[in-house]
Automatic annotation (TrEMBL):
The lineage of its organism: Bacteria, Pseudomonadati, Pseudomonadota, Betaproteobacteria, Burkholderiales. One of its GO terms (molecular function) is ATP binding. It comes from Ramlibacter alkalitolerans. The keyword Cell inner membrane does not apply. CDD domains: ABC_MJ0796_LolCDE_FtsE (cd03255). This is ABC transporter ATP-binding protein. PANTHER family: IMPORT ATP-BINDING PROTEIN. Pfam families: ABC_tran. PROSITE patterns: ABC_TRANSPORTER_1, ABC_TRANSPORTER_2. Keywords: ATP-binding, Cell membrane, Membrane, Nucleotide-binding, Transport. Gene3D superfamilies: P-loop containing nucleotide triphosphate hydrolases. Residues 2-214 form the ABC transporter domain.
Length: 214
């Protein structure tokens, strides 16, 4: 589902990482760990085509991102990707159901029934009309997960999604994230500092400045 080959990222003369090679199969759950600043978020952004790199390839579902322009990447993201951020990134002026329904709207396939189904699946049934400011951190992260999976993405990328949450809420959010990845049949790539979250993955990869290792 996802292939990264020999990826190198530099800012000016400074290497963030080089020679990063990894494969993630459909339905697989891979955790990426590594010390702060080693480039985990940057790597995830490259996987999503949201950042640029200096060498190597990123192939999502058979499509080499280098063959796409900005618009092509945006379309691929819209169709095939779900992204969950640590800071939720929900839109404050839209209610919960509107936030979750946004990817479907952008695809020209609005579907209130599907939104209700996903809200139920993440345990937020009945909260569709709340504004984000009326939710707890754990609830907001579940909104972000619901929004990331509502369109049935093939690849789900999560950047430290439990970082702002207490351990109990974090465990619940991880449960929902894994269940939703499975439900969508999506490959899940999780960047995390949490040992307990990483321990749930099929594989844990350590990112270092000179590549990834087990
Ligand atoms: N725009 C930029 N210009 C220069 N350096 C940058 C820029 N953005 C990020 N960096 C550097 O790139 C490196 C990788 O950052 P990144 O956020 O990907 O690391 P990370 O492993 O996710 O860190 P953390 O675990 O602390 O979130 C860091 O050293 C950071 O300072």
């Amino acid at each position: 589902m996802l292939e990264v080959q020999g990826l190198a990222k530099r800012y000016g003369e400074v290497d963030v990482f080089r020679d990063v090679t990894l494969d993630v199969a459909a339905r697989e759950f891979v955790a990426i760990v590594g010390e702060s600043g080693v480039g985990k978020s940057t790597l995830l952004n490259c996987m999503a085509g949201l950042d640029v790199w200096q060498a190597g390839r990123v192939v999502v579902d058979g499509v080499d991102l280098a063959t796409l322009g900005d618009e092509g990447r945006a379309l691929l993201r819209r169709e095939k990707l779900g992204f969950v951020f640590q800071a939720f990134h929900v839109l404050p002026h839209l209610d919960v159901a509107q936030n979750v329904g946004l990817p479907l709207l952008l695809l020209g396939r609005p579907n209130a029934k599907r939104v209700a189904q996903v809200l139920h699946a993440v345990g937020l049934e009945g909260l569709g009309h709340r504004l984000p400011q009326e939710l707890s951190g754990g609830q907001l992260q579940r909104v972000a997960i619901a929004r990331a999976v509502v369109h049935g993405p093939k690849l789900l990328l999560a950047d430290e999604p439990t970082g702002n949450l207490d351990p109990q809420t974090a465990a619940r959010v991880m449960e929902v994230l894994r269940a939703q990845a499975q439900e969508s049949g999506a490959a899940l790539v999780l960047v995390t500092h949490s040992a307990s979250a990483a321990a749930q993955a099929d594989r844990v990869l350590h990112l270092r400045s000179d590549g990834v290792g087990a």
